[in-house]
C-alpha cells in the first residue's frame, strides 16, 4: 500500500537511508539540503515522499521562489527542483505516478511552472513523466570523473593550462574561506555578473552567508594582494562536489584569469579531498550557442545530456513570463 508524506512528516532516518541506496541521489535531494532551505527567508521549501509498505521509495525536494515586488512576484512564481527526483532503484511505476500527481496537485496554484533540473539519467522514467503531463527539455552538463587527480588536471585544454600558469606567475592565490567579508566581496562580483551580463535573478546575500557556514558549503576565492577577484561556491556530499556559482573580474588585471582560476580551484579541491566527481551543474541547451558551455568544455569533462522535466501549471502566465525575460535580456 502506498502512502504520501509531506515536508516534516518524512522521517529523516528514512530519508537518509534512501539517499544512501539510490543510484540517482544528489545532495540537492538530501535532508541536509531541505533543512538548509527551511532557514532561508526568501523561498519556501517543499518535500513529498512516497512510502510503499513502510519503505520510502520516492522523494522530491525543492523550493518555491519569486522575484520581489507585487507584480513581479505574481508573474515569476516557480517551483524549482535541483538535481531531479530521489528514487529507489526498485521503485514501482505506481509509486512514481503518485509522487508526480501529488507534486502537481499541491503546487498547481502556487507556481506558474514546475521544473526538475536533472543531474542523473532519468530516461528509464521518461514515459511516466510524459504521461503525467511533464515535457522533456534537452539540457547539457559537464561532469568530471575523478580517479586519477593528475589525469584530471592533464585533461585541461592547452589554453587553460597556459592561463592558469600565467595567473599563478602574476601572484594569484586560491583559498577556501568562511570569512563574511570574503563572502560579501565574492557576492558583489557575482551580483554584477548576474545583473549586467546574464540579466538573471540571483539569490540574496542571506543564502551565501548561510551556506558557507555549513560543512557542505565550500567557498573558494581567488585573490591578488588580498583583493578578491572572483571565486566559486560549491556544495558537496560524500562523493560529488557541485559547482553552484562561479564568477570572476576577468580583464581587471592583464595576464590574470579569475574565472578560470576559480573553476580550477573547485576541481582541484575535489581532487584533493576525495570526491569521485566534479559536477558543473549545467551547460545550456544543445541547440543554442552558449559561451558558458564553451568555457566549461576546456576543463576536460564529459558532456552529458540528462535534461529537464517541465510541467506548466499556467500556460498563459508561463509564456507571458518568457516574453518578459527575453525583453529584459535585450535591454
How does this model look, in words?
The chain is an alpha+beta fold and 331 residues long. Strands 1, 2, 3, 4, 5, 6, 7 and 15 form an eight-stranded mixed sheet that branches. It folds into two domains: 2-139 and 306-330, Aminopeptidase (3-Layer(aba) Sandwich), CATH 3.40.630.30; 142-304, Gcn5-related N-acetyltransferase (GNAT) (Aminopeptidase, 3-Layer(aba) Sandwich), CATH 3.40.630. The mean pLDDT is 95. It contains twelve helices and 15 strands. Helix 10 links the parallel strand 12 and strand 13. It has helices spanning 12-21, 31-39, 70-75, 93-107, 126-131, 149-154, 158-169, 180-198, 205-212, 258-272, 291-297, 315-330; strands spanning 2-6, 44-52, 55-65, 78-83, 86-87, 113-118, 135-137, 140-145, 173-177, 217-224, 227-236, 240-248, 277-279, 302-305, 308-312. Helices cover 39% and strands 28% of the residues.
